[in-house]
Amino acid sequence: MGEWIRVNDIRFGSDGWRGRIAEEYTFDNVRRVAQAVADYFCKETGTASQGIVVGYDCRFASEYFAATVAEVLVGNRVPVFLAREAMPTPIISFSALSRRAAGAVIITASHNPPTDNGFKVRDQRGAAIAPEGLKRIEARIPNSLKDVKRASLESGLVETFDPAPAYIEYVKEHVDLEPIKQAGLKVAYDAMWGVGAGWLARLLEGGATTICSIRGERNPAFPGMRQPEPIPPNVDALLKEVVAVGADVGIANDGDADRIGMADEKGNFVTQLQVGGLLALYLLEMRGQRGPIVKTLSSTVMINRLGQKFGLDVFDTGIGPKHVGKKFIETDAMLGATESGGFILPGLPERDGILAALYILDMMARAGKRPGQLLEWLYETVGARYYYRRIDTRFPTERREAVQQRVRDAAPSTIGGLAVTGLDTLDGFKFNLADGGWLLVRFSHTEPILRVYCETTDESRVELLLDEGLELAGLA
The domain at 175-382 falls in which architecture? Predict the structure, then answer.
């Protein structure tokens, strides 16, 4: 193991480190990051002796990258609980909690393209490591492989285990599965070739409800989609399946099953912001829960309206589960919502696309309504219909400062014909609008990409708002 000097900086984004396999995401770089994680739990939290859970998804070579992480951890005398097969991210995160481990490492690139893999780190509660913790891990990444310790998986410090039974018991504690099983729902389910495959069927088998599954095999190429992210056009196959089988609802999970996508009974896509509003309404109206709600500033304003109606605090955070998870824990919240379809639910400060799907099905079973009717109930409760869209635009890296400065200097009084009523610069530039909607212009922290988001009560304004958002940045 000779000297090896890094040729790139490894940075943790909104939820972990991701990179292109065989370029920046190599076995050597995974070893370096694993060494930093070992140092963090050994020297900063002092909890390494409790062990670290290591899990992985079904992307290309994920099981081998996970074994590489385990070799480095045991080389540092850190006990490892290694999942015996590919598992959803929320199940591995829950394992950190259920096994009282120091934390968890998950090999997954979530919804990224098939060329990528990634590395997530969780704490002892199963939550994403807070931003300051990730910075300390980054600072500990060694430049040289000489500083990476390794040992055989036969060292006696590795326990291979099945995370499923404990998670199933956790699910049963948080949702009564029997009414869903007996509701006679027909559910079209799209695993998007990911690790969510088989989970809804496993949890709901034995009743009148049926699960019609598509794309449930392991295929790291993720054919038929650019990436396993449960949004159009990636979910077009699910939308068609809903119509073809006459399903009551369509459910999709992303590659590591921490996000949810949804289709209504007519095969129309239900946006993740609408799903967030439905989950909040379900917890408030059907389960009678009360408590703070945490959401990224890019998530739906309908949650803010529900907070006002029920007298609850709603906290906006920067974008990314590391921000939502931290605030969720601080406030003992009842719901954490992100614009990307990741929802933190009571019991585990981690996004869980499987439990979120069960909550939606429970809402349908209790109300006796299909998604279209549930959305009408939501709009009636919040007092308006809301429409959402996001676009991503690449720009030359060398123009980043100029583009950022142009947005910084902009001070529009109106956008899309609506008066600007306020500006929030928590994470990007969020312009609050007179109709109660908003426009967000935000730069990716890891790529030369500008993201423009909007939510408005006037569907005809959506394209205009997005166009003016690009114009503010000089990228129209």
Answer: 3-Layer(aba) Sandwich (3.40)
Torsion angles phi and psi, residue 469, rounded to 5: -65, -45
Q: Tell how far CA 412 is from the center of its chain.
A: 32
Q: Do the two domains 17-163 and 175-382 of this chain adopt the same fold?
A: yes
Residue ranges covered by each domain of the chain: 17-163, 175-382, 387-472
The predicted-structure confidence for 237-295, as pLDDT tens digits, reads as follows 999 999 999 999 999 999 999 999 999 999 999 999 999 999 999 999 999 999 999 99
Query: Is 269 in a helix, a strand, or coil?
Result: strand
Write out the CATH class of domain 17-163: alpha beta
Q: Which tens digits make up the pLDDT trace of 416-470?
A: 999 999 999 999 999 999 999 999 999 887 778 999 999 999 999 999 999 999 9
Query: Which CATH number describes the domain made up of 387-472?
Result: 3.30.310.50
Q: Is this prediction's pTM over 0.85?
A: yes
d(CA 339, CA 292): 18
DSSP 137-156: HHHT--SSGGG-----TTSS
Beta bridge partners of 263: 250, 269
Dihedral sign for Cα 300, 301, 304, 306, please. negative
